[in-house]
UniProtKB/TrEMBL annotation:
This is GatB/YqeY domain-containing protein. Gene3D superfamilies: 1.10.10.410, Uncharacterised protein YqeY/AIM41 PF09424, N-terminal domain.
Amino acid sequence: MSLLKQLQTDMITAMKNRDKDTLAVVRMLKASVQNAQIEAGHDLSADEEVAVMSREYKQRKESLEEFKKAGRQDLVDKTNTEMKVVEKYMPKQLSADDVKKIVSETVQQVGAASMKDFGKVMGAVMPKVKGQADGKLVNQTVKETLSNL
């Protein structure tokens, strides 16, 4: 089932259950997918759908940090709820240990010897973890791994 069809089904379910919070988030996600589809001019591939969901999740994660800094607990709670809904449509996220393992393997494959090889390692790691790990986590892990060489 395509992501768009899944969102439509979940939207109907949320309407029937009178779940306004989930309904609002699913509507936003559906609109984002449709907008991306219009921009692309074709049906989205699975990778493109994951990219849209990752972007939506990242936006909420950044907002969450800002709300915490501002002391807005009401918005923190709302954003946490939204993030849980978005997570349902994303691939399973890799743990920090899994990311470390992938980075270590990639460093060996690429033959990286110092921080000068950062771009080369990042370029090789990101396609492997696309949509499954946060870019900040990957960036930090690569820096730690290369600095320990």
